[in-house]
Amino acid sequence: MIDYRIKYNGDFAPRIGELVSMLEHTRAVTLEEIKLLRTEELDYLIDGGSNTIGSLLLHIASIEFVHQVISFESRDINESELKQWKSALQLGESARNTINKNTVHYYIDELSKVREKTLSQLKGLDDDWLFEEKEWGNGIPYNHYYLWYHVIEDEINHRGQIRMIKRMLVKK
Q: Which of 89, 100, 101, 117 is deepest in the core (most CB within 10 A)?
């Protein structure tokens, strides 16, 4: 059952616990949306330039992975990591050609593996970490709180796309 409350999670610092509550709620709604989809539905293309539900799910996982690397390891992804996640990160033609024929359980497992690491890393941090000031290579400032807000925002955005694709599936 999905919990519709943002609340403190005692396993984390107070604000991080609230952030975790938002991350987990966002994920629970996404999983509810996709849990019964068949492989052919996960691979459905609205047109030749669109993304599949499966590729959007791996994109959600890839964005979280990249934000783990940036925020927990203070670096960008390396060549090996880029090779693993490139199609999911960039979407488009490469994703259409390589991300397919997977079951919903595959995507749920990928999302879960990435999330487990996020939660494990967040457990050891205090709330001050959320507000640590960093700077992109172009001089624009950011903080960890923004990075993790973006993970939530990105998943919600792509869940909207997933819902639209599901409506198109009903019409076909």
A: 89
Q: Is 10 helix (H, G, I), strand (E, B) or coil?
A: coil
C-beta neighbour count of 90 within 10 angstroms:
14
* Coil, strand or helix at 135: strand
pTM: 0.94
Express each pLDDT in 105-163 by its tens digit. 999 999 999 999 999 999 999 999 999 999 988 999 999 999 999 999 999 999 999 99
Contact call for residues 77 and 85 (beta carbons, < 8 A): yes
> Distance between CA atoms of 124 and 151, rounded to whole angstroms?
19
CA–CA gap between residue 114 and residue 8 (Å, rounded): 22
* Helix 14-34, helix 104-123: angle, nearest 10: 180
Domains for the chain: give ranges and CATH numbers: 14-171 (1.20.120.450)
